[in-house]
Amino acid sequence: MWTITRKEISSFFTNIGGFIVIGLFLLVIGLLLFFFPDLSILSSNYASLDSLFLIAPAIFTFLIPAITMRTFSEEYQTGTIELLTTKPLTEFAIVSGKFIAGVTIVLLALLPTLIYFYSVYQLGSPKGNLDIGGTIGSYIGLVLLSATFVSIGLFASTLTNSQVVAFILGAFLCFVVQWFFYLFSKLPVFTGNLDYVIQKLGADFHYNRISKGLIDSRDVIYFASVIFLFLTLAQYSIQKRKI
Amino acid sequence: MSIEVESLTKVYGSQKAIDGLTFNVQKGDILGFLGPNGAGKTTTMKILTCFMPQSTGSAKICGIDTREDSLAVRKRIGYLPESNPLYKEMYIKEYLSYIARIYGLKNIKNRVAEMIDITGLGREQNKKISEISKGYKQRVGLAQAMIHDPDVLIMDEPTSGLDPNQLVEIRQVIRDIGKDKAVILSSHIMQEVEALCNRVIIINQGKKIIDDKINALANVLRGEQIISIEFVNAPTDIDKVFGSNNSIIRIEKTGKNTVDIYADKKSDIREQIFDTAVRNNLKIIGMSQNQASVEEVFHQLTIAN
Fold first, then answer.
1. Which CATH architecture has domain B3-219?
2. pLDDT at position A165, please?
3. Minimal Cα distance from A7: which residue of B?
């Protein structure tokens, strides 16, 4: 399993595309946080990274499927899947190896944003006037959300030989898991607390709760379940394609 | 017994890719798997390597059923798939180390160096896989299949795309390695199987036609002569006309007035054929005698059925 993880990470970074994806992510986040006035921290006059955690899910909806799209689609396209599945590796080892690699890559992309955290910390008046608990909570929420998106992207990648299709499918599924339930619950047919129940199905709901700095086991279990679901689906999909 | 295959069948939709295949391979055997394209060679190999499950029947590697403990089976098998898929962006050494780590080998560096030496990759060893020629890629494929010193080696067309010199070298590698293993290799080139294998199985449309030692097979194959005859007017009941001759194995029409008679090689029956023709008022205007070439027999075996 770790062998797979190691190979996936190194092949992501031997590819110039890997650096471009992460570089663009950091560039876009940097521009939105410090340059364009609408979400800029400098023009909001509050020492807070809220804007980062507001826009990150939207960016991750595209960024993470772009990272995971090749994981299985490329193996199917080039036939190396035959190599991989005839080695003494369980489907679980293959899928989780790639999953851990995907999460690690996203963490590496998130790591430089700690510079923003440091900057805002320094800019606060007085210095360090920043909701550290909330920020840490938000980071944990974001990591959980990224892991969820990685599992979704992996699953999408097992379904097709085409990386483009895997990307589009992955982005769509990420969107569904993140926002669909919230938007759906706004339909006027849901009365009583039905809309609230539906909202709870969406990742958005749980992400927002954790972002407040309140780490509730129920939210963590929610993310863990969704990850487990998609990783299981991915394993099932690989098995299914063997026939 | 290293490989035991028992009435193996694989059905795709309504088509049987392989149909009740049964064979065994022992340690030290190099088995040639011969058949035209689409005969079921690759399918059989994919089942043996646990890439896909069979529909019915069983396959055992070193006594372990592929369906019961596929992980243990996969540990004992080295496999070179037909298209020789490789991670093109990796370096040769990096790739071989990766495979070695998957198998959980120790002393990976030495083992990789050893495989590079055995397969003659030395000159190219610091290159990326995408930069080397097809023949060298094939060697990398062989190296990854043999790196964990498996009991069973399964290779789907291992020598395709090699130049004649490389062909000789790679065959030697397979022969050396195969001494203490059970090897199955597929091919549609008869001479290759003859040069490399000590046993051969010919399959066609998923069924086994021949399973024999290569020497025995060669004798069978070479034991025929073909007499090509041209008539002025070939009769429709030609089988009946020549049916009384015991040396004739079979008769095949090759054109409107031309036939090939396959006969026992022991005696020259041209005279008898001529006499029979005269007795039946058939006019022969051409006759020639040939030996059945290996390809021809292969062709006959796989087409006739």
1. 3-Layer(aba) Sandwich (3.40)
2. 95
3. B98
Lowest mean pLDDT among A122-126, A137-141, B70-74, B210-214: B210-214
pLDDT confidence tier of residue B297, bands split at 50, 70 and 90: low
How deeply is B287 buried, as exposed, middle or buried, from its count of CB atoms within 10 A (0-12, 13-18, 19+)?
Answer: middle
Contacts of B184 in chain A (CB under 8 A): none
Q: Which has the closest alpha carbon to B75: B149, B181, B155, B176?
A: B149
Among A4, A11, A242, select the one facing B51 at the smallest CB separation.
A242
CA distance A127 to A135: 16
- Overall fold of domain B224-304: Alpha-Beta Plaits (3.30.70)
Token pair 């036609």: residue: B209
Of A181, A177, A146, residue with least CA distance to A66: A146
Interchain proximity A82–B51, CB inside 8 Å: yes
Q: Which of A80, A88, A242 sits opposite B87 (nearest CB)?
A: A80
Domain positions in chain B: 3-219, 224-304
**ipTM attached to this prediction:** 0.86
Contact yes or no for A86 and B89 at CB 8 A: no
CB-based contact, A216 to chain B, within 8 Å: no
Inform me whether the C-beta atom of residue A232 falls under 8 Å from chain B C-beta atoms. Answer: no
Asked if residues A41 and A49 have their Cβ atoms less than 8 Å apart, the reply is: yes
Chain A contacts of B89, Cβ < 8 Å?
11, 14-15
Residues in B closer than 8 angstroms to A5, CB to CB, are: none
**CA count, 13 A, side-chain hemisphere, B164:** 1
With tokens 């089988």, the residue in question is B239
- pLDDT tens digits, residue range B45-71? 999 999 988 899 999 999 899 888 989
Q: What is the CB-side half-sphere exposure of residue A22 using CA atoms within 13 A?
A: 17
A83 interface with B at CB cutoff 8 Å: yes
Per-position b or e across B243-282, b if 16+ CB within 10 A of its CB: eeeebbbebeeeeebebbbbbeeeeebbebbeebbeeeeb
Average pLDDT, chain A: 88
